[in-house]
Amino acid sequence: MAKKYELTANKKVVLSSINPKDKGPFDHKEEVEKEALKLKEELEQLQEKLAASKDQAVLFVIQGMDCSGKDGVTKHVFAGLNPQGVSAHSFKAPTDVEKRHDFIWRAHNNAPELGQIAIFNRSYYEDVLITRVHGAVSDQEAKRRFKHINHFESLLADSGVKVVKIFLHISKEFQLEKLKSRIEDSSKNWKFDPSDLQERKYWEQYQGYYEQVFEKCSKHAPWHIVPSDHRWYRNYAVLRIAVDALRSMELQDPPANPELKAFLKEIKEQERP
After folding, report:
1. Exposed site from 44, 124, 216, 226, fewest CB < 10 Å?
2. What Cα–Cα distance (Å) separates residue 251 from each residue in 82, 241, 245?
3. What is the Cα gyration radius of the chain?
4. How far is CA 41 from CA 47, 146, 169, 233, 252, in A?
C-alpha cells in the first residue's frame, strides 16, 4: 500500500486530481481493524529491533492543512510504542533563539539519534510553505531552500536516518466541517484557533506550494500523499506506510553475546536458598 501513495522524484503532482475521500479497496472501518492490530504489533516488534541495533533511526515528517489530523495520526498510529524510543516535536512559530539560526537548525536539533524514532508534526517544510504564503520568503529564496532541504535529507540518509514524509490530504469541505465542530462541541473548543479561518483563505496558494514541494523535494526521501477525509482510513494507511518503512530497513536482532554466559554461574549461586 505504501507504494500506492509514494511519489517519485521530480514528478509533477496535482492535488486536485487525488481524491481525499478515497478509501482504497475498503468501505468500512471494520474491514481494516484486524489487520491494523497485527500491523501495530509488528511496528512494536520492529521498534524493538531498531532500538537494540542502534545503527539506524527513523524520522516521520507529518504535514497537512489545518484539521488534516496530524495530532490524531501521531496519537493513533504510534500509540503502543515504547516511549523511551520515540520523540514527537511540533513545529510552531520559531522562537527568538531559533530565528537567530538557519531555518533547518531547529529540525536538525530534534532529529532522532540512532535506535530512535522521531515524529515531526509539521517540520522544516513550513519554511517554504507558510513563509511563502505570507510573503516572508520570495520564490527565489524558496528555490534555494529546496536545495538545502534536499541536502539535509541526504545528510540524514547518509547518517543512517530514514526519512518518511507523509502529507495528509483533505478536502476544503472536510476542513470547514472540522472547524465548525470545534466551535459547536464545547469539549473541542480548546482545539479551535481563529487563525485557522484566516489561513483557510489561502487554500489555493498552499495547495500550489505543496505541489512544488512534492516535485522538488522527493529526491532522497519520497513523499506519500494519504487521502484523509476518512480518519479511520487515514490512520490505517499511515500505519501501513510506517510498517513498510521499517520493514525496508531490514532490521536484525542484535547478535548474541557469548561472554554473558559467564554471569550464569553467579546467578545460579544467588538462586540457591
Report:
1. 44
2. 17, 16, 11
3. 21
4. 10, 36, 26, 18, 17
Output the pTM of the full model: 0.92
Which secondary structure element, helix H or strand E, spans residue 236, and what is its range? Answer: helix 231-247
Give residue-wise pLDDT tens across range 86-135. Answer: 999 999 999 999 999 999 999 999 999 999 999 999 999 999 999 999 99
pLDDT digits (tens, 9 = 90+) for 36-52: 999 999 999 999 999 99
CB-based contacts of 61, cutoff 8 Å, min separation 6:
120, 123, 125, 163, 164, 165, 166, 221
Please name every residue paired with 132 in a beta bridge, in sequence order, or none if there are none.
Answer: none
C-alpha cell at 172: 476544503
| Block residue for cell numbers 545460579 | 268
User: Residues 39, 80: contact at Cβ < 8 Å?
Assistant: no
Neighbours of 137 (CB within 10 A): 18
Q: Distance between CA atoms of 217 and 150, rounded to whole angstroms?
A: 6
Sheet holding 117-121, edge to edge: 86-90, 117-121, 57-64, 161-169, 223-227
CA–CA dist 164, 120 (Å, integer): 10
Q: Do residues 40 and 142 lie in contact, with contact meaning Cβ atoms separated by under 8 Å?
A: no
Cβ neighbours for 164, distance < 8 A, ≥ 6 positions apart: 58, 59, 60, 61, 221, 224, 241, 242, 245
The β-bridge partners of 161 are 57
235 vs 206: CA distance, rounded Å: 23
At 259 the three-state DSSP class reads helix
